[in-house]
Amino acid sequence: MKRSNVVLFSLVFSFVLASCDSNRVFDTYKSVPNSWHKDSIVSFKVNPPDSTKAYNLFVNLRSTNDYKFNNLFLIVEMCFPHGKTIKDTLEYRMADPSGKLLGSGLGSVKENKLWYKEHVVFKEAGEYKVNIQHAMRENGKVNGVVELEGITDVGFRIEKPQKN
User: Fold this and answer.
1) Is residue 33 situated within a structural domain?
2) Residue 38 within a domain
3) Which of 5, 67, 81, 142 could form a disulfide with 126 if both were Cys (CB 3.0 to 4.6 A apart)?
4) Closest of 129, 163, 133 to residue 56, by C-alpha
């Protein structure tokens, strides 16, 4: 009997937390198998709800202690419905100088919400596609890291800007 109450409480609490996120417009993750191959592109298809409002865009990552770098380079490409494409190379700090992973979460998995773009207005109607690929290299080496370990999930989030 007590166990079922704990499970029920956990489900209700999770639902309440998720429903309190009133800024969320789109928020989804895709799992990365054992390691993230340099040629593997994580893609998200998005149909923004309003072409007149501005939104903030984020790349979300979940990482474990197997991630051995202090930073992370990503190539993020946004493909617009009518063919235009914007490609950005971004760098994020993933660990402090001692090597401790940054991010939120208890235990071995840390979650990072990384800024991608601010106050974006989706003026074109239709489906947008966001592609995310890692572009990591080790210091002093020309070739990129082929198999990046420690990233378990890659996500993309669109949210309404917070009102001041």
Assistant:
1) yes
2) yes
3) 81
4) 163
Domain span at residue 46?
A: 23-159
Question: CATH code at 43?
Answer: 2.60.120
Condensed to tens digits (0 to 9), the pLDDT of residues 98-138 reads: 888 999 998 889 999 999 999 999 999 999 999 999 999 88
Q: What is the pTM of this model?
A: 0.84
Q: Where are the beta strands (DSSP E) in 7-66?
A: 24-31, 35-37, 42-46, 54-63
Burial class (CB in 10 A: 0-12, 13-18, 19+), 2: exposed
- Residue 17 backbone phi and psi in degrees, to 5: -60, -45
Contact 25, 128 (CB under 8 A): no
- Across the beta sheet with 85-93, what order do the strands follow? 42-46, 128-134, 71-79, 85-93
- Beta bridge partner(s), residue 79: 85, 129
